[in-house]
Sequence to fold (154 residues):
Amino acid sequence: FKQKTAYEIPKRDWSSDVCSSDLKKYRSGWCFADVTDEWRVKTFTGIEEGSTSNRAEMLAVIEALKYANGRECVIFTDSMLVANGASTWVWELERTGWKTLRGNDVANKDLWQDLLEVLLISQAEIKWIKGKNTRSPHYYFNKLADSEAKRVVR
Fold:
């Protein structure tokens, strides 16, 4: 069971997201959680058949941004792909017609386009954070999201 993790915590009322990949079944689950000021947690999950962990990482952030619906939030992710992609690469990819430096089509073009679409209407800041740090308050959200994503891919 291979897993990747991303989680999100807000400036106001947010929390966490993750994905897990089951390589035997070739499908990925994603999860994010909305955390209120009172630390009440509501999780959201999904699954994509024929998917990869990179796609699940991206889907978790895209779905969290859709749920935020333009509200101010900060998403912390241990996926450098998502963090760098959302803050820098997606704008350049759009400018180049969704092509890599070598002129090839970018992988997961559909998700990069979806990510750009929700970033344009969001007030979100996406930051990279080191994963699996047991001393971090984000560790709780990582565990929560991880268990939800694993449940989804069963």
About this structure: The mean pLDDT is 75. The first strand starts at residue 2 and ends at 5. The radius of gyration is 15 Å. The helical segments are 53-68, 80-95, 109-121, 138-153.
